[in-house]
Amino acid sequence: MTILLSITLIGCFTVPSYAQTFQDVSKTHYNYSDIEYLVDQEVIDQGTTFAPSNTATRLDVIVMLAKALKLDNSPSATGFKDVPKTHKYSGYIYAATKAGIIKGYPDGTFKPDQKVTRGHMATFIARAYPLPAGNQTFKDVPKGHTAYEAVKQLAKAGITTGYTDGTFKPQTNLSKAHLATFMARAIRYQETGTTALKEMKVHFIDVGQGDSIFIQTPNGKTMLVDGGAKSAGEDVVRYLTSLKVNKIDYVVGTHPDADHIGGLVDVIEAFQVDNFIDSGKVHTTDTYVNILNAVKKEGANYHQATIGELLSVDSSLKIQVLHVDANADDNNDASIVLKVSYRDMDTLLTGDADTNIESQMLQKYNVESEIIKAGHHGSNTSSSLAFLRAVKPEAVILSYGKGNSYGHPHSEVKNNIMTVRAKAYSTATSGNIVVTSDGYTFTINANPFEANATSPTQPSKNQSGVVSGAPIKFSNCTEMRKYYPNGVSSSHPSYDEKHDRDNDGWACEK
Fold first, then answer.
1. Over residues 182-206, mean pLDDT
2. What average pLDDT does range 434-444 have in this prediction?
């Protein structure tokens, strides 16, 4: 019978994170997050198996409590005839009994292999930690019961809720998995005043053909990576306002393409922005100039990213710049690539980095991540099979516009995603996508789409990327954008130098 520890997630697709310490504790195991948390806290040793369904023993409980409390395990004479000084954990047993957490038996034994009940567990934890006095009672733990006060304390702290029938079942043997959950909650309560794991949310905002990612960190900090095209600025502001955002700690412009930074002017004007992170790639477009002017007017701290640096956004996160190149010839090659790590959970944000940049990162960094935003909106210039195999993603997020003129996501990318057996999610089909993680598992508020499915709204194009029925030459950009909303590259038959005023290899981009 399981303890009532569940959280109901309505309308979310649950995906476990990639990390898995024990072979017998699957990523979908109910107590997985708590067990992994205790491994991180060095309360549980890493190993091949954990035996989660086995009944916990007195030794199991004391070793976990002793490690959590940082007790000394130096070999000690315990005073128990069945626990000699040579016992592996004689120090922990001596320290725990001296601290009054546990007692021996009248016959002078400790009985380390004795099975532990839920009532025993409550008593041990209440002795180990200064928990608040409680008033919730359970019909099978009457006043006078040896665990009466302890169970009320655990209930007050939120370490237990009991069963739906109003019982606690103090005589029921405790499994090692449930012991881990009680222990994890007790430790978190002491550290934070709450038994819940803090969560990180990563919002992939639907900005059409562009990128905009908003991160809410576990400790309440915020970071916006790109803001879509200028036309998407109001949508980004509206979305952030719906989240009750009034300040953004960090805004990142991955590179100066309009479909990444165009909407940031509206964002900077609407919210207090403390820091602006730039690739340093100079661009002559009005869009880029407007961004720099908005940052200056806002008074935000301007910072040019460097490869390998760590961004100090939240002490619970590691955010590292895996790539940036202010001197790149191509805007996409300048892209800031970020790896956001929260405990065992990694998210890779690749901007428009192409396969060459991916190869460079593979040589320098561990890119393995549970979540990856596909580079360049699902273009075949990015997300190579070799790179995805190294990333080993559980989920791939594609941010692109429905019916875009580029044919994104390209079939090669969709095939690569299928090959690595990741689930694909698309802003074009799902709208705003939110990934929520406690650092060990994550949920996604969208359904995956079949990566090999062709969108019925995708324009018909030939191998040169020409939209069926579109003219080859255009007199001005207004006419071109009717067929190619984001302009065309220099390799496209409709490209004309007179429409490429900034000489960046793209004509009529917004």
1. 96
2. 96
CA dihedral 469, 470, 471, 477 (to 10 degrees): 160
Residue type, 361: M
Q: Is the pTM higher than 0.85? A: no
Q: What angle do CA 163, 166, 172 make, to 5 degrees?
A: 55
60 near 71, Cβ under 8 Å? Answer: no
**Contact by Cβ (8 Å): 93, 87:** yes
Contact yes or no for 444/12 (Cβ under 8 A): yes
Backbone phi, psi, residue 421, to 5°? 60, 35
Q: Give the long-range contacts of residues 504-510, CB within 8 A, separation 24 or more.
A: 504/283, 504/285, 504/331, 505/330, 507/477, 507/480, 508/474, 508/477, 508/480, 508/481, 508/484, 509/257, 509/258, 509/259, 510/229, 510/230, 510/231, 510/258, 510/259, 510/262, 510/287, 510/481, 510/485, 510/486
Question: Distances from the Cα of 438 to the Cαs of 344, 346, 453, in angstroms?
Answer: 9, 11, 32
| Residues 417, 42: Cα–Cα separation, whole Å | 35
- Range in 54-68, 215-229, 381-395, 451-465 the model is least confident about: 451-465
CA 142: distance to chain centroid? 44
Exposure string (b/e) for 437-469, b if CB count within 10 Å is 16 or more?
Answer: bbbbbbbbbbebbebeeebeebbeeeeebbbee
